[in-house]
Known about the structure:
Residues 54-526 form the Amino acid permease/ SLC12A domain. It contains 21 helices and no strands.
Amino acid sequence: MASSGVDRRHTASAMGLPGYNKGTSIHEEARIDSESNSGQVAADSTHRQLRPRHIQLIGIGGTIGTAIFVQIGRGLLNGGPGSLFLAFLIWCTFILAMTKCAAEMVTYNPISSPFIRFAGRYVDEAFGVAAGYNFFIFQAALVPWEIVACNLIIHYWSDAVPTGATQTFTCLLRSSYLTSISGIINVFAVKWYGESEFWLAIGKMILIIGLLSFTFVVMVGGNPMGDRFGFRYWNNPGAFAELYSTGSLGRFQGFLQCLITAAFIVAGADYVSMASGEAENPRVVMPRAFNAVFYRLTTFFVLGSLAVGILVPYDSEELANAFEKGLSGAAASPYVIAMNRLNIRVLPDIVNAMILTSAYSAGNSYVYCASRSLFGLALEGKAPKIFRKCTKNGVPIYCVAFTLAISLVSFLQVSNNTAVVLNWFVSLVTASQLINFCVISFTFLKWKEACDVQGLDRNSLPHTSSWQPFTAYYALTGCFTMIFLSGYTVFLPGNWDVPNFIFSYAMIGVFPVIFFGWKFIKKTKWLKPEEVILRTSEVDDIEEYTRNYVERTPKTRWHGYVDRVFS
């Protein structure tokens, strides 16, 4: 079979598992079995150094980026507050369904790049390769997106922007600096990435909870103007904006555009899953992390979409200046726009600065996930061998370097309007993310089918998702439909644009090309349920690790307190 098994020489000690008290080395270079036709991996050389609090906050840090503070304003501009809130509420149900699928598979076998490798093991090796490169492109494209978004945010302070060569140099300097700081923390041991992301994620939590509280206070009159505006903007200019057309069709297209915005902004299980291969005691920690996704979706995305619709009217000139024209001095965040409209001083600058900090944190997560997905491909022989190389601290250094090199495409904004380049990346990322969600949902269906045929009791697993397979079909149907709708606007009269078309639909073509190309070259096989190997040596290793796990003593009393609160 093409990819249904793993080398039985894979050992727990080689995985770098802390708490495994056999007295063996915790680091071994990843090896490919030269005798295996499928090129399966003999050892994973990353280290399990992420504590429970790191996993919880990585899940938050990866989902809260610039988009939830800035890009959400474009949804408001296109569809109005009612459409925005309804779209986010509906889309979160699809993401929750997909997350439940990922949780069951990942908690059973918590390995590096889990859903990418599961796609190859439970469906078809070629399917896993296509899924892996799609996810890598998805995460790698998010790094330059954050850089471009940061430049858009910085425009708030730059009323007098230099022109000509000076402007080009300034833009290049900013982009280079942002690229550098996005990669610095990723070249150190993963525990330092986890620690930095922990504190940065706490900052983002404070920011979004603070902004939600700010929304409530000012809407009931707690502002310098004493204006109790409540839901005023839902009545004037209205809850549902017309887009491209008038009447019901225009309002529906506005809602659809909000749904596309939600498909870009809302993230689910990706970041939690990618950390599973480096998590301490994953059979205990990962189920808790996945269960917390529901609360993140509700608090950050649903309530966030409601808040921006309360604070700013959809016909705001400031929003249009930022997203349609990319003008200097324009506030891109609806929250900052609202503060300026209410004559609140100083706070807009503080919030804008904190949004920039959140962009740095999100950039860290994207570099981490992109590098680990490429590392996972290399581990299974699907990417060049050089990407299997790790530092002594367990960092896949060449994967990190390659990801940072891709981020240099953010220099496109030098020759194009920042807002235009931002839209290109949004289109590319949205399509790739939707394909990734479809991969997870479809892989789960094949996993469940194999479990049923082979008699594996899913109720005995660390985490069992409810209402299956209907939950998986629901997620798959919604995400698959949105793949084709995400760029539909280029087909409307007068809207044709070649770059927008390419960025919106390129991955729809790239995915099958990789799939069929690999299948043709490697002669891979679409696995039947009875051919899937559910219990690999990795499962044996993780079960032995769990039995022998000894929890690390916190370095200080403060660390112990923080561990208890966020575990």
